[in-house]
Amino acid sequence: MKIANRQRTKDILQKHNIKLKKSLGQNFLTDNNILDKIVAEANLSSEDSVIEVGPGIGALTERMSEAAKEVVAVELDNRLIPVLNEIFEEQDNVSIIHGDALEVDFDSLIDGDYKVVANLPYYITTPIIMRFLEESSGAKEIVVMVQKEVGERMVASPGGKDYGILSIAVQYYTEAEIAFGVPSSVFIPRPKVDSAIVSLKVLDYPRAKVEDEDFFFKVVKSAFHQRRKTVRNSLSKAPFLSVPRDIIDQALEEVEIDPRRRAEKISVEKFIELSNAIYRIY
Question: Who's near 43: CB < 8 A, 6+ residues apart?
Answer without folding.
Answer: none
